Amino acid sequence: MHGKGLRGLSVATIVVLVGAFAIAAFYAPLDADQGFRQKIFYLHVPLAIVSLVGFIVGGLLAVQHLRSRASIWDLRSYVAIHISLILGVAVLVTGAIWAKTSWGVWWLWDEPTLVSFLIVFLLYATYTPMRFAIEDPERQARYASVFAIAGGAFVPICFGAVRAQEQEVHPQTFGSGELPGPMWLTFLVSLAGMALLFATLYRFEIETKLTRGRLRALRRRLLDDDAPVQRRSAAPTI
Amino acid sequence: MRVLAALLRKELRLELRTLESVPGMILFGVTIFVVFHFGLDRASVEGDLAAGILVVTILFAGMLGLNRLYVADEEQGGFDGFLLAPVDRTWLFVAKAGALFAYLVALELVAVPAFALLLLEPGLGQALPELLLVLALLNAGFAIIAALVGAIAVRTRARDLLGPLIALPLLIPVVIGAARLLEPLLREGGAGGLDATWLAILGLYDLVFGLLSIAVFDPLLED
Amino acid sequence: MTTAIELAGLGRAYGERVALRDVTLTLEAGRTLVVFGPNGAGKSTLLRILATLLRPTAGTVRVLGCALPREAWRARGRIGLLGHDPMLYRELSARQNLRYHARLHGVAPERVDELLDAVGLGARADDPVSTYSRGMVQRAAAARAVLHDPELLLLDEPRANLDPAAAAALEPLLAGPPQRPRTRVVTSHDPAGGLAEADVALGLRAGRPALLAPAAEVTVDEIGALYR
Amino acid sequence: MFADTLPGDQGSAYVAAAYLFFLALLLVYLAIMGVRVARMRRELSELEQLTRERRDAPPASEQEPERLPT
């Protein structure tokens, strides 16, 4: 079960992520006009970035699948999107909480990043039902890859289009040099921690799925059991 | 081109014979205007509200077309028949998008005048060429996305549900662009001009998704 | 004589369900291979693989000198398929359907009229296919399958809905010109009739080849045993 | 301008809620994965049991590896 380096990766994730949250709480200075509430920034923004990158990576892995037609690539693409979706739930909830603290409302349509994320999330929310709705596993893999590629390309386009529409009212424009050094550092550590978390969950999920596949193959060989197993998940079978 | 002509001809002939998509789309579109009238309790609309109603109506009526687009091929062996021919598969995508574009034009030929008659305050005359340009870009975007998503949805269980569910988020940039472009055109008391930025965004979106769809369409046809 | 079909260890799985496994055979051009086997034995899967419609999941396939699925585009247009599905749009007439396929294949429209007369549909050719009897649909589908004069013809129970007279009338179309007979792969449930037209007989059982021999060396009883 | 409408300590409650939600989501995910791993472990011991029984069972036919589909 412990695939190569999974343990090391998990430990690194915990250390970096806990460290990031600790320095966010105790080291990073209070924001001038947001105060303590700005601390959600170190959770919400890295989550959003990692989740979106995960969707795009899912698309790139799907390209590999269509090229090679090896189902392992479909599994990788599926897992990347699956993890991104889970993190996406956290992005939306923390985003709503941040909106509540900053503007006193749970949702703000003028916030382009939040709105685009919702659109992307709604799109990917149909990924799993689509997989379930296709019986033949090979076709399912192909269609899922087409979906993942189109979705991966849609992510940056959607953000561009929505951002062009709305006025920028984001409380923190990071990367524009406005962010003081310590805040910037804290943000980068949080981002690294979140990326590590994604990597760990990704590896964990892949290892579990592969092991499960081998277990099933073993069972089939031992029991001479050709009956297809009832599907509980939309994950591809290897 | 010979292939595209053959496919388009088959597509339109089939639609003329069965009348499965266009009449339904038109009726649905006009009905939505009536529903909006009562839902909003407004006798007339203009500006951003008018732009929104028009775009949303075209979108929802178009969904009927999306759902029917590949059904005849799926149920009557049309995919296999096409795949056996020594032709480039991309043409099927182009033909489907083209056919849907035509259906949307047919829809708008009725629905837009009906909109002007039933709800729109300023009338259509004030910026007709601009209006047609925006509608063409809207149709192209819808047709491209629907031709791609329809091919995915038709081979799934619950296709009538999945098609719109996948297509709608993908269409939101098109909705934003078209609505922003239409707003000044439908303003009461003189139409404003077209915003070049939005025109570029909408055109670019159509282009990018058109090329992308062509690139990923082939794997959808294999069995 | 050239080889039309060359299969080595061919297999096809739908996920965990294996529909076809370990089929190895060669078929010379101009010969007829008849495939026997109960429903679900993998006959249709085999035909769809040969037609380039389905990718094999194991083994190698060469059809008309093209390795599938890599060179499928070179084989397409030289293969005809008459399956359970007539591949005709019900709301269009037989003539419109055939004209559409003729355009796709780059075949002259006159050939459509010729074929419609040859299968005895000349009088009803402009009625929608949905108004046809099953035999008429099958005749129109046969015309569609041979429209482009394919070198390899794949027939999935071609006589299923035909009366003997219609079947006999179709035979020359399906067989091709006497000086250059078509290579054919035919599935059949009729041991005697199937063996009579076969050069080579293949028996499938649960996706595995249970019998492969020149038709002359196979008895009707051996075929019947496949279904027991 | 909105900032004035909210008292400061309410803000910190929101921050805590956000981080706690994230933590809870992670825990739920890990719990689900834990259940899956436990199920796989159970299946594995079932199969181990089966192989042990087969090895102990006398009939020769059961031991023939050729009988297993390849």
Largest interface: A-D, 38 and 30 residues
Number of strands of chain D: 0
* Main sheet properties of chain A: none
- For the residues shown, what is the average pLDDT of chain A? 85
Q: What is the averaged pLDDT score of chain D?
A: 75
Q: Strand content of the residues of chain D, in percent?
A: under 5%
Residues in helices of chain A, as a percent range: over 70%
Shape of chain D: rod-shaped
The class by helix and strand makeup of chain D works out as mainly alpha
Number of strands of chain A: 0
The helix-strand sequence of chain D is: HH
The main sheet of chain D comes to:
none
The value of Rg of chain D in angstroms is 28 Å
Total count of helical runs of at least 4 residues of chain D: 2
Order of helices and strands of chain A: HHHHHHH
Tally of helical runs of chain A: 7
Task: Count structural domains of chain A.
Answer: 1
Characterize the overall form of chain A: globular
SSE order and pairing:
The complex is a heterotetramer of chains A (238), B (223), C (228) and D (70).
Chain B: H1 2-18, H2 22-40, H3 47-68, H4 71-75, H5 78-83, H6 90-118, H7 128-153, H8 159-185, H9 196-221
Helix pairs in contact in B: 1-6, 2-3, 2-6, 3-6, 3-7, 3-8, 6-7, 7-8, 7-9, 8-9
Chain C: E1 3-14, E2 17-28, E3 32-36, H1 43-50, E4 58-63, E5 66-68, H2 72-75, E6 79-82, H3 94-105, H4 109-118, H5 134-145, E7 152-156, H6 164-175, E8 183-188, H7 191-197, E9 200-205, E10 208-214, H8 220-226
Parallel strand pairs in C: 3-8, 3-9, 6-7, 7-8
Antiparallel strand pairs in C: 1-2, 1-4, 4-5, 9-10
Chain D: H1 8-56, H2 60-63
